């Protein structure tokens, strides 16, 4: 008499696993396995054709004596710090656009426009904009009597100019996340705060911003990932130049792997980049969870 209910409960306990299994399989094959394989390749010297030769941590030892690697790492840190402006800018624009005024749909479309452009198109547009000969920036400078500048050809300015190009669509993406988050803000809580005298900055900091924590978390995570995998814009705008001054880890990994045929060395760069990304996101996640528990 009790066998059927037990089988029903047993089948019910297996049902979630049955639903999770396909996604878990895809995750293992297309995420976990490539990560493990990259770590394994990073421990070898391999040109992609001949048999791999075990070198242990030799590639990592070489990394820490490689000047270009350190330049790329410092540039990635600058990208990471600058990309933290994207959630701030996106939130400011979202608050501006979250109003019922005439023409707001047009304004939203204009601010949304950078997000729908591919990174290649963004890179080409800003390459033309910063061009030292016919770029719009230099045409404007010369129009007011100033000398033109070649930002992408200057070792000191090539990285900041590329970061500016990346911030344009990244800020638009964060804006979309915050616009979505603002639709979920509890209006009753806002009205109650207004009745208690909350206004302006106090209303925003104590009532609105705490309800936007999920959107903030996603915005920060995607900004971190976008900063650390900044390959497209560097490849299109500077190709790591001049003299490797604007190289980032993702581009240097590509350069060593597919142009110099050093697959093991390129995999070591990829592992370091993956570790940096994991540490930063884990730190932010732990910080967010601690704040939620308070």
From TrEMBL:
CDD domains: TM_PBP2. It comes from the Bacteria. Keywords: Cell membrane, Membrane, Transmembrane, Transmembrane helix, Transport. InterPro entries: ABC_transporter_permease, MetI-like, MetI-like_sf. Residues 72-286 form the ABC transmembrane type-1 domain. GO terms for biological process: transmembrane transport. The chain crosses the membrane at residues 12-36, 77-98, 110-130, 167-186, 207-228, 263-286. The keyword Amino-acid biosynthesis does not apply. The keyword Membrane applies. One of its GO terms (cellular component) is plasma membrane. This is Sugar ABC transporter permease. It comes from Lichenicoccus roseus.
